[in-house]
Amino acid sequence: MKRDQYMGMDVHQATTVVAVLDGEGKVILEATVATEASAIIRLLQSLSGPMHVTFEETTQSAWLYEVVRCFVAKVIVCDPRRNKLLSEGSKADRTDARRLAELLRAGMLRGVYHGHDATRKLQQLVRGYETLSGDLQRVMVRIKAIYRSCGIATTGRAVYQPQQREHWLMKLAEEGRRQRVEWLYDQLDHLRPLRKQAKQAMIAESQKHHAIALLKTIPQLGPVRAALLVATLDTPHRFRTRHQLWSYSGLGVVTHMSAEYEIKDGRATRRRKPIATRGLNRNCNHRMKEVFIGAATGGSHIEPYRSYLEGLKKRGIRKEMARLTLARKIAAVALTLWKKGETFDPKKLNWLT
């Protein structure tokens, strides 16, 4: 019977360093191959026995996942941020590949989810929309920064309006600064229609997914936020409970407890010691955190969210914690409706209890 083997891959733009271990942790193979599909497939086909492969989440990980998954028993695309906490000693390509193989053999790796083909196009359109939105925001910040560097107040959005640009440019006495702002205005004019096109394409593609119609029935989850949800989560069945979704979305509360037990009458008993909180978990999907926090913030003045928040405040919960609780509630409702294929109904879901 052929035994399992464990391969760690340290992937770079031109080359990939590979280390293969057997079940006892002995190095079977160390090699460097070109980061090309044909070279990697040849290497996998030359090895015998069930192969478990891991590599870190990078720019090339989605491509590499599709290349190797049909030739191995299991693939884990692992979280590089978590791996840093497990690493020690010197760093080198072969050392990194061997360490990944060792962590894989020990079962200490946490996989990064890669979605199905059905949402692949929507994922790319969402990334394009977010990239253009971020570029647009940076250009707007740079324009205001130049005015502020000259002591010119730029409250509101008047400084971006085409009809008022000449008025604002006349306030810049230095010719070099004026030229920089003119270039930024040109960049702004090119980015705005591109961002609009990306948004329309993203929303049009999202309509092909049945979950969008369900999620949009939830207040404050409009077409953009619903598209972000579907593109990011891919399927609600990734999360067995709402607590897992909260942690994934950065809404999980991190607690700290030490010296939990003491000896009384010769027996170990649990201390009556309050659990200390350490804020929200930082290792999360920030896109999902923005979606749920944004929905809670925007919906604080409309029903049924307003009544729900008022009920929390009457119980003595601070404003910030009430908003967090509402964000967690929205996330839980979205997960439940998506799993069950139902639309939003505040009475059925007992929102105000």
The first-to-last residue Cα distance is 58 Å
The number of distinct helices, counting runs of at least 4 residues, comes to: 13
Q: Which residues sit in consecutive blocks of at least 5 with pLDDT less than 50?
A: none
Percent helix range: 40-55%
Q: Approximately what portion of the residues adopt beta-strand conformation? A: 5-15%
Number of strands: 9
Structural class, please?
alpha/beta
Radius of gyration: 26 Å
Q: Mean pLDDT across all residues, rounded? A: 89
Task: Report the biggest beta sheet as strand number plus sense, adding barrel if it closes.
Answer: 5 strands, mixed
Biggest sheet strand line-up: 3-2-1-4-5
Q: Sketch the topology as an H/E string, one letter per element.
A: EEEHEHEHHHHHHHHEEEEHHH
Q: In one word, what is the shape?
A: globular
